[in-house]
Amino acid sequence: MKERKVLTRRVGKYEPLDLKAYKDMGGLGGLRRALDIGPDSVIEEIKLSGLTGRGGAGYPTGLKWGSAAREKKTPKYFICNADEGELGTFKDKVLLDGDPWAVLEGILIAAYAIGAEQAYIYIKGEYEDTFNLWGKLAVEAKKAGLLGKGILGPVGLQVARGKGPYIAGEEFALISSLEMRRAMSRLKPPYPSQQGLFGKPTVVNNVETIANVPVILAEGAEEYLKLGVKDEPGTRLFSLSGDVKQSGVYELEMGSGTLRELIDEFGKGTISGRPIKAVQPGGGTSALLAADSLDCSLTTEGIRKVGSSIGTAGVIVYEQGKSGVDIVKGLMEFYGVESCGRCVPCRIGVVRMKEIVERFSDGKGTPEDLEQLRQIGKACVVASTCGMGQAFPLPVLSALELFGEDFETVISKVPA
Ligand SMILES: Cc1cc2nc3c(=O)[nH]c(=O)nc-3n(C[C@H](O)[C@H](O)[C@H](O)COP(=O)(O)O)c2cc1C
Question: Which residues contact 55 (CB under 8 A, 6 or more apart)?
């Protein structure tokens, strides 16, 4: 299993503000071609490439751009989502810091394709160094005629600093935050491409998604389709962490190996040398997989077939010796305070589930608690408005299914 550096090929190879070095390494070729072929053909090229979102939901990028471009309302906006809040996910930072001009080039192409004169990049609050870098990058880009009244016509970029909550990465909550309101999700439809920022057509794309755009434009969709597998072209940046000897971000062609190979070859096995107990393949809200499910192909479909999701490709490894209760306690400590409160199932459910998991961790859980955990989790999945409530119960539900005995053994022996 080998890394295939497409998006990361320039990372660390030039000083981040050095536009000339970026150009010398082939940068801006995608933008040049975009300007040559025009917005409609850019969208067609992205559709042809089969590019799907890397922010978690996997929606086809070209379709999203097409629907925003078709909207009559103006102005239109483009937002690059650099909030990177999902647990176990730290790949966007590699691109934002290591090849920022490629991300900017992707933003400019996207804005051009959908007809947006104003773009935003919403950078995770904790990434202070990245935020500072992007402030300087925007100044350099303006000097070079890439922003302002430049080669694309008027296009502005606002570099916004994330306000902190996990939910602010959800596209509507992010939009709400950019509007200087509390970050809260809302019901869809209407989708952001119809009614987004300030009620106008808006496209929100993840950093990694956008970093693919200059590659597709510069080399052509046909060339891009040679990467990965038929139904899933391209590469993915896997963030590998947890109980592995070597955590890091690894760029792999889709379907170029299995989850087990990724963990063994790049992670160098578990820290203690003990066998693996469980893995979350798609960030902290993806369902747990047991060790016997790790021979699945590293594709959306391969991971779905064994009962989880590729999500943000944040692979979190848990070694034997950890109980299922400990694993989900750590997760619920995080998600338990992150609901935006807009919809009841998530607002109430996440707190109740956190409390129940804590009772098990304190050896005070009851058989009724076990049943409640299942029922509340399932109710949140089906009844919540956004991806947060629909997904945070998945690791808990999967832990109950795979490691039910870990919960049974800590059921309180003291009558309630
Ligand atoms: C609770 C929650 C948090 C999210 N956080 C992020 C995030 O930090 N970064 C991101 O790109 N997408 C995040 N998303 C997904 C976005 O809502 C949206 O689908 C994505 O930015 C669209 O870009 P893409 O199509 O390029 O993936 C989150 C979704 C949910 C439900």
Answer: 81, 169, 205, 206, 208, 209, 312
DSSP character at residue 294: T
With the most atoms of ligand 1 within 8 angstroms of its CB, the residue from 64, 79, 202, 206 to mutate is 206
> What is the DSSP-derived secondary structure letter of residue 274?
P
Q: What is the pLDDT of residue 154?
A: 80
Separation of CA 82 and ligand 1 centre (Å): 9
Could you give the domains of the chain?
19-226 (3.40.50.11540), 229-319 (3.10.20.600), 324-408 (1.20.1440.230)
| Position in ligand 1 atom list of the atom nearest CA 285 | 1
Residue in this structure with the two tokens 């107990």, named with its chain if needed: 277
Q: Tens digit of pLDDT for each residue in 66-104?
A: 999 999 999 999 999 999 999 999 999 999 999 999 999
For residue 415, pLDDT over 80 is answered with no
Over the Cα atoms of the chain, what is R_g? 22
| Buried residues in 51-88 as b, exposed as e (16+ CB within 10 A) | bbbbbbebeebbebbbbbbebeeeebbbbbbbbbbbbb
Contacts of 234 (CB under 8 A, 6+ apart): 6, 49, 50, 51, 212, 224, 227, 228, 253, 254
Q: How far is the CA of 204 from the centre of ligand 1 (A)?
A: 8
Pocket residues for ligand 1 (CB within 6 Å)? 53-57, 59, 81, 83-86, 166-167, 169-171, 204-206, 209, 386-388
Please give the Cα distance from 167 to 182 (Å, whole number): 10
Would you state the structure tokens that stand for residue 263, as one six-digit string?
């963990």
Mean pLDDT to the nearest integer, 249-262:
97
Mutation pick for ligand 1 pocket among 47, 81, 103, 107 (CB with most ligand atoms within 8 Å): 81
